[in-house]
């Protein structure tokens, strides 16, 4: 082979090969976009805005003749088209992989109505404007394709731009952020379908090809499902698939995508559905997410967005075209605004989200350009003026929408912040998001048992996360280079016993076993940090993931002989710091896996759980957590209320007070009327909802001091496999004297006793601390 061809060297008098200049252009886009992002990020702007601006700047530099000749060579178009196809295939497959299917299913109606609302409003608005454009641009033929191109291109929503922006704004775990992502995908896919089928109808030759490719895509999906289950069995001791095995999936996807594109049919939807229907559990899924996420989000998408800006050009437009350009941009935004407002009003979505949703769904992207440049045989109206006007309107609309969306977020920051930071006012019909933190497989198994118990009924909305905490040593023993270490930072050649080991592999195996048995997907997060900063990273993670409670492992574990061993004071200090700074409720799980709480997904026996209620915000939070235990058929829950002897307990008066609702009130009058009134109302609601229906047991214990409380706790210590109790800061007559031999104050008085190795309690213990709100601080403390 000719060396010039092999190394992409220029031919003739050319200084650079088009392939070389394309890579230089990509590097320039990445550098410029990082420069713009440094200044725009503090203003709340998302990454795509900076990256599109970088492309515009590079496009403006082509005014210089030498720069123009360098970047825009005659043969460069084919290179751009091919690499655009590769990049588009990669990130659409990843979007399908990362999409929250459970949320899509729950909000299918909302997404569909908003999609059709925006398309209908845009279609109606464009009808009179189309008549004006036809005369203004002197269109003589192919009116249908002109209207179709205008409608699809300017009513479209660029889902990659929406996704990247939502992630940058840290809204990807919020309800409105996920709704925006799903609506963006629905709008884009609908537009592609409409465009493809109209063009196939006009051509009269594509219909058979489309159905053939749908069948071929289904075959690829089945092959992927087979490979995803078979490949992990070849090397069960490896944490991830090999690079060669990963490449096999991409070869299949590229083959089907290239075949579809060769027939002048857009392959985006087909590739997206291949990713969407890929198995969501196991080693194969983790491997693809691990190896695709970083390069695509950090390199592929910035280049792709930059290329949108690079297409920007107004050189062929005159002054009279600028007015039409402004009208096009305005109508594009207004059409989306009206469609979203009508749909949101019908769906009763909170008004604070209406403007944000309409602006973020107005962003355009490269997909509009792809549809604009395709099937030119049926677009005899296509001219450089129309092309530049289309592209300029797409770029300007996207920049305006991005800026307006960020301004709305900035002005309504509180309205978009995470609100469900505790469980007391959390409706069980809403999604429960929890984060479990583990250092190794020992803690993972116990906390997975807790996750299994909380899931309860299969219809409940439950999103669990597992964060693998990897303490980073201050100085590595190994002298190997970074690329010689594996994904956990471990010596990939000889191993390093003090860092990483095989805990990650064993945790993955435990999660895979749990997922197969319980059909619950646990989303994994890895956190590598020094112990001094670990608590800050955990708190940031809880805020980003928008969880209502985070579970931490106790710093001691039970040995096989039943005794407890201290894992280290550094873990205890970390727990204390999280308890102090966490932006949500916190639970510390004392796992006695030998004698206490067992993995529900591996056993058919019923687990007996006791919730201890002394009163106060932490006990209310612990009892609120038990709401999700009541629907689990393998959990028998009993509420044990401790009542001070000096309190006056009246008889159950449900028939006389709330006879119409068949409620039963337990009247408690204590010294602090305000605090006891809150506890009474809360306990009354729980009693009427679960105890009177027979779902939960209820026991009342009257005590006058801590000694009597200790006696009762010892009596019931062997009756239950799990105790759930609030931390309960502050003194109480019922626990007086119990803190004289306190070992772990961070567990509270009762929790510390139950967790102590010196007491005859073999059950696991979950100590809950509620996140303090300003109102709660005023009332309860």
TrEMBL record:
Residues 609-771 form the Cation/H(+) antiporter C-terminal domain. GO terms for molecular function: antiporter activity. It holds the Pfam family CHX17_C. GO terms for cellular component: membrane. Residues 510-600 form the Cation/H(+) antiporter central domain. Coiled coil: none annotated. GO terms for biological process: potassium ion transport; proton transmembrane transport. It is found in: Membrane. It comes from the Eukaryota. The chain crosses the membrane at residues 22-40, 47-65, 77-99, 111-134, 146-167, 179-204, 210-228, 240-258, 292-310, 322-347, 354-378, 390-410. Residues 35-407 form the Cation/H+ exchanger transmembrane domain. It is a multi-pass membrane protein. Keywords: Antiport, Ion transport, Membrane, Potassium, Potassium transport, Transmembrane, Transmembrane helix, Transport. Belongs to the monovalent cation:proton antiporter 2 (CPA2) transporter (TC 2.A.37) family. CHX (TC 2.A.37.4) subfamily. May operate as a cation/H(+) antiporter. This is (rape) hypothetical protein. It comes from Brassica napus (Rape). The lineage of its organism: Eukaryota, Viridiplantae, Streptophyta, Embryophyta, Tracheophyta.
């Amino acid at each position: 082979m000719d060396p010039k061809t092999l190394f992409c060297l220029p031919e003739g008098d050319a200084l650079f090969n088009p392939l070389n200049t394309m890579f230089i252009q990509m590097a320039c886009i990445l550098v410029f976009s990082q420069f713009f992002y440094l200044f725009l990020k503090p203003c709340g702007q998302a990454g795509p805005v900076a990256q599109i601006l970088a492309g515009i700047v590079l496009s403006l530099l082509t005014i210089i003749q030498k720069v123009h000749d360098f970047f825009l060579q005659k043969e460069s178009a084919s290179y751009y088209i091919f690499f655009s196809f590769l990049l588009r295939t990669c990130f659409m497959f990843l979007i399908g992989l990362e999409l929250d299917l459970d949320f899509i299913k729950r909000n299918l109606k909302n997404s569909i109505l908003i999609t059709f609302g925006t398309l209908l409003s845009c279609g109606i608005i464009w009808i009179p404007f189309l008549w004006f454009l036809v005369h203004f641009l002197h269109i003589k033929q192919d009116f249908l394709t002109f209207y179709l191109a205008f409608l699809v291109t300017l009513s479209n929503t660029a889902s990659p731009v929406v996704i990247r922006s939502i992630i940058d704004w840290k809204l990807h775990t919020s309800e409105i952020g996920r709704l925006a992502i799903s609506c963006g995908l629905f709008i884009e896919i609908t537009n592609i379908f409409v465009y493809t089928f109209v063009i196939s109808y006009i051509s009269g030759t594509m219909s058979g090809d489309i159905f053939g490719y749908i069948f071929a895509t289904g075959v690829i999906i089945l092959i992927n499902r087979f490979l995803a289950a078979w490949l992990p069995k070849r090397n069960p001791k490896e944490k991830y698939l090999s690079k060669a095995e990963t490449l096999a999936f991409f070869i299949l996807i590229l083959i089907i995508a290239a075949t579809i594109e060769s027939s002048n049919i857009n392959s985006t939807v087909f590739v997206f559905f291949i990713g969407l229907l890929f198995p969501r559990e196991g080693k194969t899924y983790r491997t693809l997410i691990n190896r695709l996420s970083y390069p695509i989000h950090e390199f592929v998408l910035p280049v792709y967005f930059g290329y949108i800006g690079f297409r920007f050009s107004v050189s062929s437009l005159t002054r009279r075209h600028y007015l039409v350009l402004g009208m096009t941009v305005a109508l594009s935004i207004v059409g989306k605004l009206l469609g979203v407002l009508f749909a949101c009003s019908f769906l009763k979505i909170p008004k604070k989200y209406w403007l944000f949703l309409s602006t973020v769904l107005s962003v355009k992207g490269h997909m509009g350009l792809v549809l604009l440049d395709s099937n030119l045989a049926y677009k005899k109206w296509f001219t450089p003026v129309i092309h530049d006007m289309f592209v300029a309107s797409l770029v300007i609309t996207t920049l305006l929408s991005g800026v307006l969306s960020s301004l709305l977020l900035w002005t309504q920051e509180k309205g978009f912040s995470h609100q469900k930071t505790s469980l007391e006012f959390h409706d069980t019909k809403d999604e429960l998001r929890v984060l479990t933190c583990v250092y190794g497989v020992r803690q993972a198994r116990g906390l997975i048992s807790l996750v299994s118990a909380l899931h309860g009924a299969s219809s409940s909305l439950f999103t669990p996360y597992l964060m693998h905490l990897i303490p980073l040593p201050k100085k590595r023993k190994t002298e190997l280079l970074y690329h010689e270490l594996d994904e956990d930072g471990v010596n990939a050649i000889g191993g390093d016993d003090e860092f990483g080991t095989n805990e990650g592999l064993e945790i993955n195996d435990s999660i895979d076993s749990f997922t197969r048995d319980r059909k619950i997907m646990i989303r994994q997060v890895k956190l590598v940090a020094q112990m001094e900063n670990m608590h800050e990273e955990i708190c940031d993670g809880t805020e980003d993931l928008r969880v209502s409670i985070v579970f931490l492992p106790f710093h001691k574990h039970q040995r096989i002989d039943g005794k407890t061993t201290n894992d280290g004071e550094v873990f205890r200090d970390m727990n204390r710091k999280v308890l102090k700074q966490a932006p949500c409720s916190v639970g510390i799980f004392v796992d006695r896996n030998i004698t206490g709480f067992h993995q529900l997904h591996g056993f058919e026996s019923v687990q007996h759980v006791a919730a201890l209620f002394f009163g106060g915000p932490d006990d209310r939070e612990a009892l609120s957590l038990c709401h999700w235990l009541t629907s689990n058929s393998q959990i028998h829950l009993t509420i044990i209320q401790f009542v001070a002897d000096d309190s006056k307990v009246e008889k159950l008066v449900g028939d006389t007070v709330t006879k119409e609702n068949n409620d039963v009130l337990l009247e408690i009058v204590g010294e602090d009327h305000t605090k006891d009134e809150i506890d009474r109302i809360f306990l009354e609601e729980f009693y009427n909802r679960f105890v009177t229906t027979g779902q939960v047991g209820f026991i009342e214990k009257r005590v006058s001091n801590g000694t009597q409380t200790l006696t009762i706790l010892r009596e019931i210590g062997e009756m239950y496999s799990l105790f759930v109790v609030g931390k309960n800061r502050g003194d109480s007559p019922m626990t007086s004297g119990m803190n004289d031999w306190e070992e772990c104050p961070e567990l509270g008085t009762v929790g510390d006793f139950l967790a102590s190795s010196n007491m005859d309690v073999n059950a696991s213990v979950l100590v809950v601390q509620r996140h303090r709100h300003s109102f709660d601080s005023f009332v309860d403390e």
